[in-house]
Fold this sequence. Notes:
By secondary structure, this protein is α+β, with helices and mostly antiparallel strands.
Amino acid sequence: MSAECSSYLNADKVLVSGFSCPRAGGDARAVYCCGFRDVKYCCDDPHSFFPYEHSYMWWLSVGALVGLSIAAVVLFAFIITVCVLCYLFVSTKPRSKLDTGLSLQMADTELHPSQGPHRNKLLTKPSGFKRFPKPQG
Length: 137
């Protein structure tokens, strides 16, 4: 089995004469004509011939690199924006907590004399709801 690579003009516009695959002294498995319109060679893959110029495929690669670069810059800008917004959110919060005027303590503990209005009072257990006298009338 063999394939014929037709003559072509290379990138320097020089005519390269046609040849058959496999080439003398080359790989015996390289029976297919591969490459581009301006660069042809023998290879073992029947689907490796592209009817474009090699420089056209190179420009596609450059375009893909430019597109990926732009996407990377946009992603980087997004990450920086999120970091700045998080920093601003954290740094603009009030530093001190609001004082509700209540001191929370565990049951069965004694308050320090300087804490709260009920000085030196021993808390034993919650007293439940206070009942108000029924209104008369």
